[in-house]
Amino acid sequence: MSTLxxxxxxxxxxxxxxxxxxxxxxxxxxxxxxxxxxxxAVRAWSGGNMPRDGRVTLDIAPLVDNxxxxxxxxxxxxxxxxxxxxxxxxxxxxRNPQREVLRCELSAANGRAEVSSRIRLATSQQxxxxxxxxxxxxxxxxxxxxxxxxACIEG
Amino acid sequence: xxxxxxxxxxxxxxxEIVEIRAMIGHPMETGHRPDSAGRLLPRDxxxxxxxxxxxxxxxxxxLYPAVAANPYLAFAMRAERSGTLQFSWSGxxxxxxxxxxxxxxx
Lengths: 155, 106
Hints:
CATH topology of chain A: Immunoglobulin-like
Number of helices of chain A: 2
Structural class of chain B: mainly beta
Mean pLDDT of chain A: 84
Number of domains of chain B: 1
Helix content of chain A: 25-40%
Order of helices and strands of chain A: HHEEEEEEEEE
Oligomer: heterodimer
Strand content of chain A: 35-45%
CATH class of chain A: Mainly Beta
Radius of gyration of chain B: 16 Å
Largest sheet of chain B: 4 strands, antiparallel
Shape of chain A: elongated
């Protein structure tokens, strides 16, 4: 009898897991309005042009336990000379209350186009790192991040 | 209350590219968070960081509420000569803080 109860408990546990999964999948799926808000923020930053994919690497853990302080690092392939360097690196997010995260100004004096920081993530979402080069070209990388404990929840 | 910072400037050989790290103690209150009574806590963040070497801008950043509390920034710099690095932070409610560190070539 007691083993039967244990099985019941185990079965209900499995049910719980099953019922949570579709919700996670839903929160991951992109609503078009959010995706376009992200694109809009990037366009406002770039002056109308959409950056091309490439040259930018946005390093962030794909699965984040705690959204309150998430290490990020952005690297751009560039010789960082006076003639050819990265002028600006910016990071935008899809689902925090505000699209902007960080905007950095660089020059040839940096020698290497790399910036690191720690950011807040309100929920699972897409992040994009964009770079403006001295020749005016725009580059980006988009990354999908899963957040299990969100920032901004506790009052 | 005094402001705390944590800055690392490694010793460098001429021409070497070093990583400079700067962190400042600040709550970075987002302006999107309610207090216990349900009222929104007013935004109080650092909005700007600048690093200059002998007066010349090396790195600058605009910060938004999505930057975590105690904002941390790391960036690279090509060390060409010894001199003084000046770090400055400014933000909401008239927040201003500056620090200086030597950059020493070995």
